[in-house]
Design brief:
Length: about 270
């Protein structure tokens, strides 16, 4: 699991959107929350530190768990901080234009694409935080790369108490409703759920046929109790037709719940 949830705070447009989500996740996982700001060389580190301390106080966090780092590139500063063992980055993102691209001053997309550790994205349409997260929707497409997130999902199920929901979006000539009864289509997800259940997790599953995987995943999340969404940033088909990270970012742009994104080690 992780021992620290790192929350990057943009010093140019300070926003605490991700902080409540980080606090809930940290509480469930028994982790600490650390607020992080990256300032450019010559920037006012003291002012940034004071702002972080103020945010920590507002959210009832330990004001000693704040950090200001200096870096030319904010994305690299966050990636360096996230590179420490036992860290999860939880960052707010906002839509820059109506395509699959999110930015935190053009930072969140880079962090998602380059991080070797999972990143929790809080998109612009996220609903208020629940008292605790209860379920985790796992986007699969039949590829080993997409399945590489399953050990992480099992870890979250064991330590954060979330119920995994394995979910596959299959191609369709026309959009159909979630929850079709085509047995053949569901064999892969069903068998994968059975395999994951052997690790001790209570696992649910479902499939859908639709031409718009990101929208379908985001829509499916609205029907589950206090969910998260978990995706790898690359796969073979269905949710993997866009560039690396594209669908994951598109889901985060659309979703009303946080999206956990992991880049497989093979990439």
């Amino acid at each position: 699991m992780f021992s620290t949830v790192i929350v990057p705070i943009d010093p140019t447009t300070p926003s605490d959107t991700a902080v409540p989500f980080a606090a809930v996740i940290a509480r469930q996982a028994g982790a600490a929350v650390e607020l992080l700001t990256v300032v450019p060389p010559g920037g006012d580190a003291l002012e940034a530190q004071a702002r972080l301390a103020e945010l920590a106080k507002e959210h009832g966090l330990d004001d000693e768990r704040t950090r200001v780092v200096t870096a030319e590139d904010a994305g690299l500063g966050i990636l360096d901080a996230a590179g420490e063992a036992g860290s999860l980055v939880c960052m707010a993102s906002r839509a820059r234009r109506p395509v699959a691209e999110l930015v935190l001053g053009s930072v969140s997309e880079r962090v998602v694409r380059e991080s070797h550790d999972p990143v929790l994205l809080i998109g612009p349409h996220c609903r208020p935080t629940p008292d605790r997260f209860a379920s985790m929707i796992v986007g699969l497409d039949g590829s080993p790369l997409a399945e590489s997130i399953l050990p992480l999902v099992s870890d979250w199920a064991a330590h954060a108490g979330v119920t995994p929901w394995l979910f596959q979006v299959l191609d369709a000539p026309l959009p159909l409703e979630v929850g079709g009864d085509d047995v053949q289509d569901s064999v892969y997800v069903h068998r994968t759920a059975e395999r994951l259940a052997r690790t001790g997790s209570d696992v649910e599953w479902d499939v859908a046929r639709d031409r718009h995987p990101a929208a379908t995943i985001a829509r499916f999340a609205t029907g589950l109790p206090a969910p998260l969404i978990a995706l790898t940033t690359h796969g073979r088909s269905g949710i993997s037709r866009m560039a690396l990270g594209g669908v994951a970012l598109d889901v985060a742009r659309r979703a009303t719940v946080p999206v956990l994104v992991m880049r497989p080690n093979e990439l």
